[in-house]
Records
---
Amino acid sequence: MWLGDLLRRLRKTSLIFGKLDRGSEGMSTWYIESALAKTSRIILQRGILGEVGLEEWAPCGTPVVVIADPIVLDKHPHLETRLTQWAGPDSIYQLDISEATKNLTTVEKLYQEFGTRHVRRDTVVVAVGGGVLTDTVGYAAATYLRGIKWIAIPTTLLGQVDAAIGGKVAVNVSWGKNLVGAFHLPQAVIIDPQVLHTLPMRQWRAGVGEVMKSALIDGQWLWEQLNDSVPAFGSEEWDSLVEATAGIKVAIVNNDLEETASRMYLNFGHTVAHGLENYLGYGRITHGEAVALGTRVALALSEEVLGLDEAVRRTVEQWMIAWELPLTLSQGDWNAVFEAMTQDKKSRAHGLQWVLLKDVGHPLIYRNLPRKQVQETMERILSI
């Protein structure tokens, strides 16, 4: 498998991948550390938010601004205490944000807050929350004063396995998802799987599409684990699934930071997903639900174009049923969905760019699929 070869090469070079330390009391500690262009470090450890030495990235005297989701602070008061001890009593700005407000209006509010707090080039901005928050705060950090340092502390499944890793930061505009953005690597991404256990079920579903995607393009341990058993949300098996999914993304990003080659494979299922999110309206469907639906379409197209075994899609559909993800849409104007897809950042002059599977673990970039075929496949796969 191409990704397996890549992981083996990276283990010998810049990446310390999946190092596992099991403590005497059964605690498991994971570290995923990557140079990522020598600017970003990813640390994954259960319970790390109760003990992490944040001073490593912002020593005493360094100005710090924390942008945090108020729901996260309410559910994890120890985290608020730790952040206040580190950054100061007035350092936290609470940002209530959703996919519907992940936009330039919210970025403007952050700019105003940065100005009020006299943010300078040596200030460190810390984003604490889900993928929507880390995307938005990361973009504000990328563009304010032409770029200031930031740290991501993702607290949702989507954030921990995908959104906070790799330095792609962006916000939505009315005609498309993540169309205004930048590459701006955080100094650190601090991942604590323990915080996931307070998530509502819909937040689990919002991230599980990325786990499925990673299993399909990797085709190794993660695929095998999910085939063996589909873990319930909140079960202890998720610690290792988060580690594996995050590690796959770290490995790919190390190889292709600015998405000119293999990083494109991480867009599997996303061509349709972003179109659905735009067509339905941001917030009407979670990103993970949209990716799951987009994955079904991408697998069906892979069957038609590349001869992928239909059993792969049937397996993924069983995962979706187990996790109570939607398999279909109650209504769909497939022409309108396709038009929304053409506004996606993955679109090129020659048309839409697809990631398809020749087999599990063998993704390919495919271009110029006929519009009629795509719309007919969406209708066949996603209609009730």
---
Amino acid sequence: MASIVKKITVKNKSGLHARPAALFVQVANKFDSRITVKNDTEEVNGKSIMGILMLGAEQGSEIIIEAEGHDAQAALVELEKIIISEE
């Protein structure tokens, strides 16, 4: 099964901190696809709150989301909305 990869810049002024990270994981877990999130130094499970927080993604940083599975495209669309939200 093919995977879809997208590079996204974090827009939230506080970065991917507790609240948006929790929302990201909540949304990621609604999908069957395997979701991986990467930055320059880490690669983590997109369905793990600890993993997402470990990335330490600050405003302006770039992360790469990879989704693999039958609902990968839908997962990426929903997860990107969280990353590019300024709230």
---
Amino acid sequence: MLLVSDVHGAFESLRAVVARNETLLILGDLINLLDYRTQEGIIADVLGTEFGAVIAKNRALGDYDAMRQTWGEATGERRTEITKQIQAGIKAQYELCQEALAGARGFCTYGNVDNPQLLAAALPATMRFVDAEVHEIEGVTVGFVGGGTATPLAGAGEVSDEEMVAKLEKVGEVDVLCSHLPPRVPALSTDVITGRRERSSGPILDYLREFQPRYHFFGDIHQPQATTWRVGRTVCRNVGYFRATGRPVEFSP
């Protein structure tokens, strides 16, 4: 099977992965609101690259108050109109995602930038939207928990720790856990470009310590200090920033 995460609009590369005709697991963040490296994305398309650069700088600092202030100053009385334009851009990207996934077979969960409802609607019939579910895939039980950690931005794809705990309780013991978020392990949640600890999940770390699945696959951190780590017997693996690499991770149970 092949695993990808953080596609962020790289739909041509995703199409090439689909063409390999293997079971595909997608771990969230399909759309590209804003590429913090290049300032490309839906937000920049609507509000300009200079605005995108300011947002990227504040995001790298983890300054959500400054992000909200910048947003308010840029949108002003046009907030409703701009929000509609961004929503239209999101829907357009999910349409491109749907085209790229034509013929794909596998499973997809969501990340913090995703709209779960729009993502689920965009998937072809052969790709199943999964969250807080367990499926047997190529002889192993795989649990899926979607979403990113809650922030002051309150994105559609964010979930609270309490919600994540409830999802993990539904999953229970599995051979492989798949999530968008990394466990709260410093080396796995530190971005070497921003130089700071990024969002990570305490509930997922607690789950790994209790149930010890063979593998935990995830994404979210684009430039992690470490891509692989062990929590007890569990091998934790960041499957990569697909928008930048265009490469899936191959996994043979």
